[in-house]
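LOG
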Amino acid sequence: MAGTVQSTHVMKGKLFGHFHIEDTLGAGGMGLVYRARDLTLDRAVALKLLPAATAADELARARFEREARAASRLDHPNIATVHEYGEIDGRLFIVMALCDGESLRERLKRGPCGAAECREILDQAALLGSFPKLDTRKPPNQPGGRSQERRSSHAHPASVPRPPEARAPV
């Protein structure tokens, strides 16, 4: 992955379609993610590109498309909203809401979490587990996904874990 991260800096400051790439956010098995400016709508976005090295691989392309379609069906404050999916000059891309915040990895570098913060992180992870399984044929996510400070009223009430004292006896 070190080679992948180094190659991400080549795009900084360049145009990709109507997106101006401002910075690298991360790199993983399925793509490179950049902070970009959508010049059409004048907003900051996260732009995920399928790496050029795999642009001709039909299996990788199909998996990337499945990921875009699956993510676009989800509505949750801890999952970036998909705004657009497409192809420019043979490169597949996904445009998502930019979620400012720190990754769990970044947070843990600052030191141990207190009990309340640990509970908040675990509650957010539990909510994500309440979504129906989507067939993305994608390996487990890499550690270090971005967290968000905002909350949304879009989560279904049935997906919110109840405190132990409110649960029915088994």
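LOG (cont.) second protein
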Amino acid sequence: MDKPLLIDGYKFDLRVYALVLSVDPLRIYCFNDGLVRLCTEKYKRPTNRNIKNHFIHLTNYAINKKNATFSSHQDKEFSSGYKRCFKWFNKFLEEKGFSVKKFWSKTHGIIIKTIISVLATLKQNYRTCMASEQHGPFCCFEILGFDIMLDDKANPWLIEVNHSPSFNTDTELDYSVKYRLLSETLQLLGIDPMERVRYLKRQRALARERIIGVEDLSNSIPNYPELSHEEMIERQDEIERKVLKNFVRIFPTSSSQKYSVLLEQQNTLYMRLTDYTRNNYQPIWKKEDKRPKSRALLRISSRINLREKFENPVTRPVIHRLLQKSLKDEESGENNDLSISRLTYPLRRLSLIDDTKLFIRR
């Protein structure tokens, strides 16, 4: 940056924390406090002599705390030292004659546009990992650290985005900001400790059903009502009204219409990604339809009803390896019934298929 805004002659940047609470629908929050990080030596325009002096040009705390002139002393209002709070920074902008409201509006716009720029990929990954609707829209979240630098006219510029920002508490200011940040994030998530217990009971009951064939699970686990998509959003809105103190929801808001063009572009890209995945990552039996040697595999897999097992990433390698062995037996001219018996024996032990689905002549 040619002309950065300086604090007492020192270069600085801002660590702004943003919370992505859900991807579909997209919800973004910005924390109203953060870190103002200063260099430990006064700023000089970059030259060949000082370009390697990191204490002048880099605002990273991990670098500047190694300077001999560094001091971690801070007053109670965090208005001095090499780390300062946003409350002091807002007063600093006002004293310089800049509009605080205008600055934060631009900063929020940077955060929103940055996240929307990768929305198609985020949504694709989310739908891949959370394909079932029972998970709801609020089962994943991320706290991002945006590094913002200001020019001499107080215009914000994005330096980088940290998807895993540091939560170390080397100073009192770090503890004050990050403790409130994490506490309110966990409250916004609305985590019910009993949900894990219910999930584990459900999984154990389903495992018993697969092993011993219990069809009625009403006696195994309690019947908990499942919320619809709209009810989950209403539930989250209610949690937000009760919990929201230091976070500000910046998307969606009443002025989010101006991002409609960007959202439409990302939705189009998402559809293309979905089509590409559907056309290029098909189940193995569909891909092998065009291969000459696949016919034997298809005949065996159809006889023992293993197609659905290929969709499971855990069982796919086992099934594929066993099918390949059976294919070699068939090509070598061995008894097909015997080869299938060899195939199904380890599968029974793994409880992957049911004997009633097999058509083997004894």
